[in-house]
Amino acid sequence: MEMVFKNKWFYRLLIVYIFLLLIWNTYMVVTGNLLGLIAVVIELALLYLLFNKHRLAKTAIHFWAIIMMIGPGLSILGKLIKVATGDDLNFMVDSLVQNLLLFTFGLIIYYFNKKTVFIAERSQF
């Protein structure tokens, strides 16, 4: 069994996005943030599964997209609670925009993974 991408643009853009995240997280590890090492390992595993079109890639992308939505989603919720209690929104705008972008990317990846990626039997030659 192998993974089939009905939308080739999604496949290419997903690889580019994961590769850019890999570069960023590698930079974070090199500058001393060892927590980024977890992200580097996950991104390398995702790239391996994608390049080999492994049958587990769809599931891995699915869970990765959910995690990409949970973290920023909770952060957005926390910031909205802070604003509702009277904190100034001006200090949180940059972080809020960044979290909204990450949440949106996670949502888009989840949607396209669900609608355009399929597991198929390998064609026999």
UniProtKB/TrEMBL annotation:
UniProt keyword terms in alphabetical order: Membrane, Transmembrane, Transmembrane helix
Ranges that cross the membrane: 9-27, 33-51, 63-84, 96-113
Name of this chain's protein: Uncharacterized protein
Lineage per the UniProt record: Bacteria, Pseudomonadati, Bacteroidota, Flavobacteriia, Flavobacteriales
